[in-house]
Each structure stands twice: as structure tokens, then as C-alpha cells.
Design goal:
Aspartate Aminotransferase, domain 1, 2 domains, about 15% strand
Length: about 350
Amino acid sequence: MTAAFIDLRSDTVTRPTPAMRRAMAEAEVGDDVLGDDPTVQRLEAVAAERLGKEAALFTPSGTMANQLALGALCRAGDAVVMEAGAHPFNYEAGAPALLWGLTVRPIPGLRGILPAEAAAAAFQREDDHFAPVTLLCAEDTANRGGGTVWPLERLDALCAVAHQHGVFAHLDGARLMNAVVASGLPADRRAAGFVTVSLCLSKGLGAPVGSLLAGPRDLLKRARRLRKALGGGMRQSGILAAAGLYALEHHVDRLSEDHARALILAEGLSAAGFPTRRPETNMVYTSVADAEDAQARLSAVGLRCLAVSPTELRLVTHLDVDDAAIKAALAAFSALPDGARPG
């Protein structure tokens, strides 16, 4: 890393590469709210094709992309079913209720994966006492699950439950390209059973801003109006869209490097006495005696990470983390006092 510290808090901390900055500086722009920014139009077309959907919509954030899907697919008073650790339930500021009057029904799964049978059990008999379930959601990869890649059969099974009950399915694909690289299965296949899918450009793909929502063209027209209502209409946003295009064209395959470094980090932490889950993608969850204390000690020596529970830290590899940074991170952990290691 070029900075004086190693930042493993999230893959959202990436900085645009020099080549990405050049693409942004040279972008042809228009007014996207008026529908005439050619670079945004190109990004949306490329994303729709990659995700196997009719159309796509450029949004400022992944939260907005997810919420536009919920707002376009559901009505006030409906219930949305998702795994208990899912991003729209935990990290989107209560937006389903705040914006759309929706109830989220969280169901515990295994490492962020919602079993189809548990989702099916959420459908109660028709009764005026119950909020009707009208949407099932999945998050691939599952952040709180540890960057878990959904097995394809689990995605298909969840979508089959939705179709069986005549409701929609939405895929929060914030880190979908990590799942694509880890599984070897293309994005359009992983998203095939979902009516809508979001994709974040500003995480592992390394763009500074932006996400996409893809789905049926008519539904995206409604989502565009909701984006405007939420203040998400951007003018010469081709400058930002150019970064997203560059990311999709140049930064997808290299995600395998992040995954490889995450595995090296996890194995090194385990060897140093910090029990660590084996990562499937770019997220490493490791156990310590006191997460807040360990986080502070590591930060003091230039290593940034996040305490995600009283005894667990999260470290995320990304394009600004090289081999030297992984080596330095392991040295910082090894230098922690013995009391930092779990009992």
C-alpha cells in the first residue's frame, strides 16, 4: 500500500488507480437525469448484459440499489424474508420500514446462507393478522457470513421457493463478482432466478462510487422514478460511470489475488494463535480475547481492521493490499501481547 498504514477495514477503502482516474478524466458526459449521459448508458448496458437482465440503473450506492428493488417490488405492509445477517436488514439504516413501510422477517441461516426450507416456512396461511411475504432476498457473497459464496443449488432452491409462492426474489450482489471468481460461474447464471440484482462497483472492484440495479426494463422505469424521489438522480455522472466501466473491464479477474492473499492472511493468523475461519473470498474473520482492545493496539502500529463482535475482528483484502501488506499485518498480530490471544 502507498499509505503509511495498512487498511483492512473493508474493500470500500480502495482508491482509484491511475488508469481509472484517466478514464474518469476522459469520460464523455451528459445529463443523466435528462437521460443523455452516454457513459452512464454504456455502463448500464454492459452491466445488464453481464447480469443477464433487460436493463440496469446506475445508483450512488449499494444501499440505494437494494432499496430501489424493495420499493419497486413491494407495497407498504408487505414482509420481506432474508437471512438474519443480511445487509438490507442490518446495515441500511432501517430503510425498508423508513422508506417503504415494509417488515423484514430475518431468519437465521448458516454463514449467511438462508436455507430454502426455512424460507418456505416463513409463508404463513392467508390471514389478515399476518403481513404477506412478497419478496425473498439473498446476499452473495454473504458479508456477515464471512464472505461466503452461496452454492448455486442454494440460490436456485431459494428462487424456486419464491416462484412456488408467486413472489419475487432479489439478489443483493454487492460482492457478486467475488462469488463469480471464487465459483467459476458467471454472474448471469448466479442471478438467473432473481427478478432483480444489485452490484456494487466501489467494493472489491475498486471504483470510488456507485452501484447498479438490474432487472426487467419496465420495473427499472419505476426504480428510476424512485431514485429521483430519493435524491439519487445525478447529472454528469458519466465521470463516475467511467470508473465503474473500467472496474468491470479490468478489476474482476484480479479479485482472485485478493482471495489468495486472504487465505495467506488467515493461515498466518491461525499459526500465530488467533483462530480464524478459512475464507472463501476476500474476508477474514479472526478471534481475539478482546476485539476493541486488539483493534486499538493494531491501529496504533498502522494496521486498521474492524471489531465486529466482542471477540472477533474482520480483515478484508482488496486491490490496495499487496503481499508486503499481508506480511506486515501478520507481523503486527504476532507482536500483540499473549493476552490478546483467545483463552
